[in-house]
Here is the input.
Amino acid sequence: MDNMTLIAMVSIMTAGFTIAIGGIGPALGEGRAVAAALTSLAQQPDSASTITRTLFVGLAMIESVAIYCFVVSMILIFANPFWSQAAAKAAGV
Amino acid sequence: MHLSSDELIFWQYGFAQLNLTIVTTWGLMLLMTFGAWLITRKLSEDIHISRWQHILEVITLGIKSQIEEVGLSNQQSRKYISFIGTLFLFILIANLCVIFPGYQPPTGSLSTTTALALCVFIAVPFFGIREQGVVGYLKSYTQPTMIMLPFNIISEISRTLALAIRLFGNVMSGGMIIAILLTITPLIFPLLLDVLHLLTGVVQAYIFSVLATVYIAAATRGEGA
Here is the structure.
């Protein structure tokens, strides 16, 4: 198996695993956050606007971890430096 | 695959390029400045004010009340509302204009979001020093003990990075998912994702400005409260 095939194979597999495993944690965390928000909304409906705003801010913070994993997998697929280096070397030869 | 609007270059001279991101950003700036100038030409203080002045007042008072709820007090919010309000309005309008066909949001390019995050990164020490003096602000890095000094510095840098990547990832992922789905499914599904894209654009604009407010409040409050 030559260099380019190896790089392509490892990059694609890693990209898949990154986004698959990286999406589990934030999804679980957001589920718990929304559950806690719903409980406190049921107990104190008067402060609904504060609770909703805090919920959205918290959700965006949790979401950023998933976004980091997504950006890494996008880099691996579309802007892979090792792949461009190997392709340049193969084209040069 | 078209990754960001940095790739469409109109004109290049050395390493300085005029690409779509810059053109869109300048277009947005001109639109907002010209619109604001048009509306505030004739401000009136009667009971009956024009519709556009009403809209601007609602927006400005809304931003001011949000800043006060997050942590800054009443007098201080007047000092920072120009910076925070500009951040919020620019990101909001940049994300909402995806309604127009053929428009690519400049916040979908890492260069724009990094520039905005760098503005916050420079503004927080600037406001902190203006509020507390150089010694007082630098002393806040050694709170609560001296051992925390490298951790405080690292957290300062990493949260700037997080601001940039959060906004970039949210906007770019929406655009890319819609582009991919358009080649696979009929029109209704990408339309629903377009609506979700609008919602996330508004939420991300709000998050960016609220986080900037929280950092400024933490830097300017110091050991008082």
Chain B has one domain: 5-221. Residues 5-221 of chain B form one domain. Residues 97 and 103 of chain B are 7 Å apart (CA to CA).
